[in-house]
Amino acid sequence: MAGQSSVAAARTGNNPFLRLVAALSTLAGWCSAAMIVAAIAITCQMIFVRFVLNGSTIWQTEAVIYLAIGATLIGLPYVQRLRGHVNVDLIPLALGRKARFGLAMFTLTVSIVMVAIMLWHSYEFWHLTWERNWKSDTVWGVRLWIPYLALPVGFALYLLQLVADLVAILLGIEKPFGLEDS
Questions:
Q1: What's the pLDDT at 8?
Q2: Mind listing the pLDDT tens digit for each residue in 94-120?
């Protein structure tokens, strides 16, 4: 655990913005993990009700789907913070220090723009479901703005983490692509 905190401190330095974003991303990761655990527990309960008690399930399948989607979206900033996405660093390894920095700036800027567009559209979609009080067409009839809230929240936190990554590189707290100069 101590090694994990020292890695996080090295990536945020003493910058309060980077530390705040790291804390938010970590909290999002914990929330995402809790959603996955809840989905597993609900799935086990559903199996017990259906196959042991021979009863019907009303809300379980829908809840598990919403929790899995929510966990994926809310977990985005945490995975980005840990660099857990699959990546291929062949091109950054082949580049020099300045070209690597330029490529990092380009990829982060394009990512920020794309995620900002996704955030805008997801907020519009969420707001529409909230404004019109849409409900699912199931027996449970959940108000859709509740599970759909994961869209703008997840993309907003992911955008914040990408901006923090950009700031960390610009301030020299982190190296582009995490690679030392060759």
A1: 41
A2: 888 899 899 999 999 999 999 999 999
Instruction: State how far Cα 161 lies from the chain centre.
Output: 9
CA 154 to chain centre: 5
Q: How far is CA 36 from CA 77, 173, 177, in A?
A: 16, 33, 29
- Distance (Å, whole) CA 6 – CA 3: 5
Distance of CA 71 to the CA centre of its chain: 8
Element (H, E) at 143: none
Biggest CA-to-CA distance, the chain = 65
- Residue 86, Cβ density class (10 Å: 0-12 exposed, 13-18 middle, ≥19 buried): exposed
The stretches of the chain forming alpha helices (DSSP H) are 2-12, 16-47, 60-74, 76-82, 90-94, 97-131, 145-148, 150-170
Note the pTM of the prediction, 2 decimals: 0.88
Query: Can you say whether the dihedral through the CA atoms of 28, 33, 34, 36 is positive or negative?
Result: positive
Q: Is the dihedral of CA 165, 170, 171, 172 positive or negative?
A: positive
Q: What CA–CA distance (Å, rounded) separates 4 from 19?
A: 14
